[in-house]
């Protein structure tokens, strides 16, 4: 069994144990093991199992070792199957409701015999949760809102998840012997943060054989349409995938057609019509004559346009900019020279400070900003003032140990409900930078939430505003907030806006970034990493930055070590004078 499947089953076992009211330490052991397996990697996992060395991995005891051996080698685990059979499967659907964890779902099942979303909604409408221990009127209303949210987002996937699945498909597609060219298309190629399905485009001289080859891939569970030019399937992960097959000379046109949004394609067809041409997925024509294009670059050039990057094809001004020659030179992953917003074992991170610094150095970054949670975040092991001091001393010693990388000492400070931070100024002034974030009271009234955030960014010690809208994709809407007022305040007080690259956040929304860029605000693409592997999430942030028209000059952490060092020192000195 593959690594992701093993980790998912371990995660499910943890949930099932909680649903059954088992000892919480037992379920935590499975949750922890799931994270460990995800970090080990596919090839290494099987090697450890076959060499009987998995039990030597920290966090994997003898009992888990035996179960993992069975699961990896046979693809089955009777313990899991028996556990799963003992609990209604529909409870997993209820667990998708934002804010409902296994313990609350278990309480609903045990006390009200609720096993489905429909039953849960009915119980809420009948006010049956109001007097239920651990719930109440507010929780009941939140559950109703969560059910509505869930319905709006069913059948959607994080960009990161859909892209991983799609790249695996593309890799298999390229193994077809008569393949010509092939590419991801649709919303994945445009880097939309939420994806409904996977689109691929391929060229071949043997279309019928290719569609049948695709339909028979091991990851396909159901074929919903099969023809010579298109095959639609459902994958084992639940997501649907469409493959469009064209002749080699049609490939550039098809790739463009199946990449752009409906609005982009409509606008481009209108432009072509005004120039006496027409566009479809098979070509660009003047009357019945094909205008030959070998690449997408040539396709755009035939329409009098500069090449438009796939991320921009949303009809948000890209066609006009391509005609005027004013398209941005989009930021690239290679432009990112360091990272901020990184957690360690000082709070809720999985890796030590030393491991994090070495991992950052080995990844080729020039600097790293350590920002563990602050004291209000007790749920995440937030740092008291003495802890911060101890961490700062360790950072100073690591600066001597690893002179090739700059290590900045910061904190992710909670913004309290009144807009103040949860450390006094005399603590903040000792730090190199401060990320201010909202983690509680997320549903305050719009005016109060706006005033709260504006007060925070007016604090002279605040360097970066963390995940500015507080959204969780597929889990929580943005906080009620006048975001434009926040932008104005950030500009006035020279505060950098975070683009939180965690795939479940991707906050700021790309739809705001063009305005942010035009205002002259700086953006920092931060991974919000809780382990070394989390550094890779920076790439998802870069994808969203590109979608939001950002150039390298708009991104704070595209600057050199020397420039960042000078910026932070200047800002710290200014904060000291303001105090």
Topology:
Layout: H1 3-19, H2 24-40, H3 42-50, H4 62-74, H5 78-85, H6 91-94, H7 102-112, H8 117-125, H9 137-152, E1 157-158, H10 159-173, E2 179-185, H11 186-189, E3 194-195, E4 197-204, H12 207-215, E5 220-226, E6 230-235, E7 240-246, H13 251-257, H14 262-274, E8 278-280, E9 283-286, E10 289-290, H15 296-302, H16 318-324, E11 338-342, H17 353-362, E12 367-373, H18 385-401, E13 406-414, H19 425-428, E14 433-437, H20 446-457, E15 464-465, H21 483-492, E16 496-500, H22 510-519, E17 523-526, H23 538-547, H24 561-578
Parallel strand pairs: 4-7, 11-12, 12-13, 13-14, 14-15, 15-16, 16-17
Antiparallel strand pairs: 1-3, 2-4, 5-6, 6-7, 8-9, 9-10
Question: What would you note in describing this structure?
Answer:
With 579 residues, the chain is α/β, with parallel strands linked by helices. The chain folds into four domains: 3-152, DNA polymerase beta, N-terminal domain-like (DNA polymerase, domain 1), CATH 1.10.150; 155-246, Beta Polymerase, domain 2 (2-Layer Sandwich), CATH 3.30.460.10; 259-327, Beta Polymerase, domain 3, CATH 3.30.210.10; 333-338 and 410-578, Metal-dependent hydrolases (TIM Barrel, Alpha-Beta Barrel), CATH 3.20.20. Helix content is 44%, strand content 15%. The protein is built from 24 helices and 17 strands. The mean pLDDT is 92.
Concise synopsis of the structure shown:
The chain is α/β, with parallel strands linked by helices and 579 residues long. Helices cover 44% and strands 15% of the residues. Strand 9 and strand 10 form a beta hairpin.
Shape: globular
Please name the fourth-level CATH homologous superfamily of the largest domain. Metal-dependent hydrolases
User: Helix/strand/pairing class, anyone?
Assistant: alpha/beta
Mean pLDDT across all amino acids: 92
Helical fraction equals: 40-55%
Q: Strand fraction band?
A: 5-15%
**Which CATH first-tier class of the largest domain would you pick?**
Alpha Beta
Main sheet: strand order: 11-12-13-14-15-16-17
Largest sheet: 7 strands, parallel
Number of strands: 17
CATH topological fold name of the largest domain: TIM Barrel
- Total count of helical runs of at least 4 residues: 24
Q: Flag low-confidence runs.
A: none
